[in-house]
Amino acid sequence: MFISMFGAVESGVIYAIMALGVYLTFRVLDFPDLTVDGSFVTGASVAALSIVNGVPPILATLFALLAGFLAGCITGLLHTKGKVNALLSGILMMTALYSINLRILGQPTLSMLHETTIFKQLGSFWSVTGIDNALNSLLGVFGLDRLPSTWAILTVMAVVTVIIKLVTDFYLKTEVGLALRAIGDNKRMIRSLSANTDNLTIVGVGLSNGLVALSGALIGQLGGFADVNMGIGMIVIGLASVIIGEALFGTKTIARATLAVIGGAIIYRIIVTLALRVDFLETGDMKFITAAIVIIALVAPKVHQVQREKKRRIQKRKQLGGDSHA
Amino acid sequence: MLNVTNISVTFNEGTLDEKKALNGIELEMAAGDFVTVIGSNGAGKSTLMNVVSGNILPDAGDVIIGGKQVVHLPEYKRSAFIGRVFQDPMAGTAPSMTIEENLAMAYSRDKKRRLKFGVTKKRKDMFRDYLKTLNLGLEDRLSAKVGLLSGGERQALSLLMATFTNPNILLLDEHTAALDPSRAELITSLTEKVVRESGLTTLMVTHNMQQALDLGNRLIMMDKGQIIFEANGEEKERLTVKDLLQEFQRIRGEQFEDDRAVLG
Ligand SMILES: Nc1ncnc2c1ncn2[C@@H]1O[C@H](COP(=O)(O)OP(=O)(O)OP(=O)(O)O)[C@@H](O)[C@H]1O
Ligand SMILES: [Mg+2]
């Protein structure tokens, strides 16, 4: 149990980078970008291909980020300059990326099991520090027999994700970032304040997919393979993370909202892990559950609002002397 | 400052819906001119504003601002030196962002946007001073979300955002029309004050004839895409609402169709 929870948090911290990307498009730009399903795999594929060809893992990971950025820019271009509907431009790009990803991989699945990934490098560096032993012996006190093989990934990825969060927070408070946020809030206004909304949108969608691809590259290296189908439903997972996080942790400020997104991504992984331990659920059911979470999160507040309004009216009618037919 | 020459705009040309919205408009404004624009619904007032702002590319004619031909300059570039307030109080501000963030975005209007904090301590002090001039107490609510403000407060903020970088041209399109009378009064007096103090070259559309007479040093009346009447300086000072209605009837040989105008 502890081990699977540990694994959930570990991958959750990496998926959080993807969720931050989704937050940038869905919330900040108000651009429902479906490129994510493709760009996540592009990230994993570019990293895998580079690593297999002897590129240092850190560089391979940066290549992945760049590839995702480019893919996002093209989606943004389609929407702004090509005047294609936002949803459709994402779907088109996602579809095109499927073929591109297959080309990059050369086969449906590319294994990195025998390659040096960023995490293997990290592990060998980490083992010198002896932190694992210290933490595990600490946990041993609680009588846990099966302990994590390394704390390196969790620790370092948590730091990386928090750094990305802080940079995002900063970016969204800069002059450029304010204009970017205004695109999602009041596009006409920010255009009348001399901002090039097309270029900002393109860069914004690019950055978002850069983060998504980075996350894909890291997840690929964590699992030891890149698979052309590993991105299916990723956008819904990203959305679920954003929505769960916002509901639980609030969105009062930008810093709060991005923290909430990270929290949401981790909690989502924990939910998945718990759900998979339920006997009658199978791995394949997860997509359904994820979609259900998003649907509930989207619909529930509206229904609640309507109900409350109705109740208020009924109460008011009663106060005013009641219905003659009652 | 603003030279609009021989502007024509036709919507849906070559279809059944063809509509000539502007027909050979000529308007020359010196720096500091405050022109009020009146005219019935569909006269082409908003279209003229959109041509000046760069929202609509005219079929013919030039728009020259400060001696520069800008007719092909896209809206977002032109808005570096054109301030604008819309009729809808929701249109001029970003609701889920704070007052200080909105002001910071307006402050960047005529500058290159960089990767530096938009809201700094220094700017906050400056914003506070500007907000004080509105006398609405907004200076104490810098970090409140704009969506929480009333329509009148939002419109006052929009006006401030449109003017505090001293743009070459200020465009106001019925910017008091959606407000209740007392708030409209407030925005009108703020407009008068801001334009007077900064000497902004201003083009203001209004359906309120009294407002058109009270404000500005020039007045134009539009109908069917043309400027049909113009009064400047002292001549405008002497005008009354009755004169305007008579003038319209004399030129067009028909009643001014807009009841709102008469009542206003
Ligand atoms: N985008 C458009 N497409 C087609 N026709 C348009 C468009 N915009 C304006 N028109 C038409 O052009 C004419 C002038 O419209 P405009 O909005 O400039 O009038 P206005 O003087 O501002 O009127 P109002 O007082 O009602 O605001 C109208 O007949 C209008 O229907
Ligand atoms: Mg109009």
UniProtKB/TrEMBL annotation, chain A:
It is found in: Cell membrane. It is a multi-pass membrane protein. It holds the Pfam family BPD_transp_2. It comes from the Bacteria. The keyword Secreted does not apply. One of its GO terms (molecular function) is transmembrane transporter activity. Its main location: membrane. Signal peptide: none annotated. GO terms for cellular component: plasma membrane. This is ABC transporter permease. It comes from Oceanobacillus profundus.
UniProtKB/TrEMBL annotation, chain B:
Residues 2-249 form the ABC transporter domain. Keywords: ATP-binding, Cell membrane, Membrane, Nucleotide-binding, Transport. It comes from Oceanobacillus profundus. GO terms for molecular function: ATP binding; ATP hydrolysis activity. It comes from the Bacteria. This is ATP-binding cassette domain-containing protein. GO terms for cellular component: plasma membrane. InterPro entries: AAA+_ATPase, ABC_transporter-like_ATP-bd, ABC_transporter-like_CS, ABC_transporter_ATP-bind, P-loop_NTPase. It is found in: Cell membrane. It holds the Pfam family ABC_tran. It is a peripheral membrane protein. PANTHER family: NITRATE ABC TRANSPORTER ATP-BINDING PROTEIN (PTHR42788:SF7), TAURINE IMPORT ATP-BINDING PROTEIN-RELATED (PTHR42788). PROSITE patterns: ABC_TRANSPORTER_1 (PS00211), ABC_TRANSPORTER_2 (PS50893). The keyword Transport applies.
